[in-house]
Design a protein that fits this description.
This protein is mainly α and 179 residues long. It has 4 helices and no strands. The termini are far apart.
């Protein structure tokens, strides 16, 4: 009887030890940035709940990391604007982070597209457009520089047109552009 009792206690201790070790291995892997591991040990009761919760957390972290990496690559590296992260089943801080990544990508997309529209218009001879998207930091500096350039080009074109009109239409020679 004592032997059976001792064997059962030892079996329980070994089982619990292997469960805790597997959980600790996965938690350590996550802490080190490895989201490829999951808890695989057989479990029941509260340990099963813990296993399921941690595995769900790892899956969500992995999905979040994959989506953020994809959007960063698409928008930042490949230049494909408009990318949005789609992480299913997340809530709390993970949803907030996903929303912030999407807001950042959308904001950058709208800024770059507005700048591209204006510079394309200038290249096509239309000097009536200006960048009107909300911007800060280096994008604001670029916006201001391009808008100033367009304004100066417009003033130059207006002055050249005025002088050409004076000379060509009104016959006044000696007209000078004042830029």
């Amino acid at each position: 009887m004592w032997k059976d009792l001792t064997d059962n206690v030892n079996f329980m201790a070994d089982n619990l030890t292997s469960q805790v070790r597997n959980i600790a291995q996965v938690a350590t892997a996550v802490a080190q940035g490895d989201l490829g591991k999951t808890i695989t040990v057989e479990a029941k009761g509260e340990i099963l709940e813990l296993k399921s919760t941690i595995n769900t957390m790892v899956d969500q972290l992995s999905a979040f990391a994959d989506e953020v990496t994809r959007v960063a690559r698409e928008v930042g590296t490949e230049g494909n604007l408009g990318g949005q992260a789609q992480v299913r089943g997340v809530s709390g801080v993970w949803k907030d982070l996903t929303d912030n990544v999407n807001f950042m990508a959308l904001n950058l997309t709208s800024q770059v597209r507005n700048i591209a529209q204006v510079t394309t218009s200038v290249a096509n001879g239309d000097l009536s457009k200006k960048i009107d998207v909300d911007a800060r930091g280096e994008i604001l500096e670029l916006k201001d520089t391009v808008n100033t350039m367009v304004q100066q080009l417009r003033a130059f074109a207006d002055e050249v047109t005025r002088v050409a009109r004076e000379v060509g239409t009104e016959g006044r020679l000696g007209g000078r552009a004042q830029v």
